Structure formats: C-alpha cells, structure tokens
Amino acid sequence: MSASTQAPIIPIKSSSEPPHVIAPDAATIFSRRAQRFDQLAEGHSLGDWLRFLGAISRAQHDALQSLPALGLPDAAQMSVAREHRMPPLPAQSWPRPDAWRESLTAITTAIAKHAPDAAQKDLARLAGYDAERIEALAERVLHTELYGEEASLLPYVAAALQVLWTGAAAGLGGGEITALDVPGVCPCCGFLPVASVVRGGGEVGNLRYLHCALCNTEWNLVRVKCTACDATEGVSYRYLEAEGAQGSGAVRAETCDSCKSYLKIVYQEKGPVDPVADDLATLALDILVDEAGYARSGPNLLLVPGG
After folding, report:
1. What residues in the chain have per-residue pLDDT under 70?
2. DSSP single-letter state for residue 36
3. pLDDT at residue 248, as a whole number
4. Measured between alpha carbons, how far is 276 from 258 in angstroms, rounded to an integer?
5. Does the pTM of the predicted model rise above 0.85?
6. CATH number assigned to the domain with residue range 21-296, chosen from the 4 options 3.40.50.150, 3.90.1670.10, 3.90.1150.10, 3.40.190.10
7. Would you report the helix, strand and coil content of the chain in percent, each value rounded to 5?
8. How many Å apart are CA 61 and CA 32, to the nearest integer?
9. 8-state DSSP, 122
C-alpha cells in the first residue's frame, strides 16, 4: 500500500482582512463634516462658532471638487516610499502646487458672509497678502508652528492645505501605503493625528483608527495604546458626563501617564461622530485634562491655540 501524501497548506490572505490604511472619500469627507458641525451646534454654548466651522467645511467640500488634477508620486516613487517606510506625500517637503492658494481664495470668499466680526478682519488681512507671505503661513502650519503673530490667520490657511492633501490622499488611495516605523504619525503625509476613531461596523468594526489632521487619511492602531509614545501602561479615559449630544462617552480623552499626553477618541457606535467636529465641540474636555496635567499630542488645525 503506497504511502499517502498530504497537500501543502498554503495560507491565503482573507479578503475580509481589515485595511491598515483608509483613504479619505473626496466626495463626502467635508460635506459630512459640515453636517456634523451643524448638528453639534444645536443647543451648544459655542453654537455660532460651530456653525461657522460648518461653513468652512462646506467651502472645503466645494474647493475639493474644483481642485485640478494633481501630480502624484509615480510607481517608482511609491516603491521607494514603501521600501524606506516613508510617507509618499510628506507634509514638510512634498512640492505643493499653486492651486492650493486658489482653494484658499475660494474658501475665504465663500465663508466671508458667515464670518463673525473678528474673523471678517482676519479674512480681509489675508486677502491683502501676496503669494510669498501666504506660503510662509503655510510653512508654519505644516511645521505645526501655530503660535505667535498672525496665528488667527492660520486656520484658514490650514483649511486650504487640508483640501490639497485630502485630494492627493484620495487620489493615491490607501492600498499602496505602508505603515511607518513611527505608528503615531500619518503613513500618507507624516502629519499628526487630530483624534482616534473607533469604527462602528463592518470589517473594521470595533477597530481603532487614527485620523490625520492634514490629509484625513486613517490608519489602524491597536486600542489602549498611547498614540504619542506607544505605552500600554498608564493609559486611561476621561469624558464629560453631561454635554447633550457630546455626552454618553461618545468622545473621550485617552490620557497617558508615561508621557503625560492625551488625544481624543470618538466612538462611531454612539452616533454619527466626526473626529474633527466632535473634537472641537468638546473643548471643555480639553480644559479638564489640561488642568490635570496632560498636553495634547496632535493639533486640530481649525483651532489654532495661539489664535
């Protein structure tokens, strides 16, 4: 009787394996954010400001739909980025086209009628700046130098830069982007996250993704781990007990005792949350954790601390 042979077992990657990187949806990212700002504004003590931010998000949506075709990294450049674990659209060195300043003009023109008095003055100042001065402001945003003179102008510059990098990230898609050696920065552009999102369903259900403050790319990071220093000990969560639509633990501050940093984390199972909008609607939580001795690890570019 001949000996039987067993066929080799060849592992096959499951088609349902959750993606490590999720590219932004250019058709919906800013319009949905605008809707969330409007929703959060109802009955909120900062309602007028949140509605203005909603107007900015709608202007970003329109600017993104009008963005011309961008010169994205080619196959060879993507291969180098993957090999060296580098972001393909690095915030501090990717050559940005002049079109981003056209987006800035479109955004500031669209929001002027919605702007409060202080913002009206800032928008008028910005409209008088030449390209060189505007590019200098852009460099400050991209290097997270968000304090000091003219800081109140930076959110508008940042809004246009978000349009540019979001369009580029959407054009690249997430499938060709590799995780970086530093898991707490965006694998697409190397920028910092604005918050974490715990997804609510499907193949990514209950998984935590960091959300880039610049290009709106999301990337997976295991839960109960500090996004700034990778520590797993001393991580805890704080939230506001009663803040209407912002309560019930939908938004929490993930604090780390190892590096004394924090970043917000939002839970989709609690409702239609948006990492940027819900972050700004819960500034009271920032105050509480700041008073407890923790420093924020990633910026929200629509709220410049020095502005």
Report:
1. 1-16, 242-248, 306-307
2. H
3. 52
4. 26
5. yes
6. 3.90.1670.10
7. 40, 10, 50
8. 9
9. H
Residue 242: per-residue pLDDT? 61
How many Å apart are CA 60 and CA 162, to the nearest integer? 8
Q: Using CA atoms, how far apart are residues 223 and 197, in angstroms rounded to an integer?
A: 10
Distance CA 74, CA 77 (A): 5
Between CA 39 and CA 210 the distance in angstroms is 23
At which residue do the structure tokens 């039987």 appear?
A: 4
Task: Please give the pLDDT value at position 84.
Answer: 92
In the chain, where the domains are located: 21-296
CB-based burial of residue 28 (10 Å sphere; 0-12 exposed, 13-18 middle, 19+ buried)?
A: exposed
Task: Return the pLDDT at 41.
Answer: 97
Residue type, 55: A
User: Rounded to whole angstroms, how far apart are CA atoms 305 and 296?
Assistant: 11
Residue 173, pLDDT score:
93
Query: How many whole angstroms separate alpha carbon 88 and alpha carbon 215?
Result: 12
C-alpha span between 103 and 109 (Å, rounded): 10
- Summarize pLDDT for 159-183 with one digit per residue, the tens: 999 999 999 999 999 888 988 989 8
Q: Which residues neighbour 32 within 8 Å (Cβ) at sequence distance 6 or greater?
A: 272, 274
Spatial distance between the Cα atoms of 30 and 9, rounded to a whole number of angstroms: 46
Query: Considering only CA atoms, which of 152, 147, 137, 191 is closest in space to residue 169?
Result: 191
pLDDT at 16: 61
Chain-centroid distance, C-alpha 85: 20
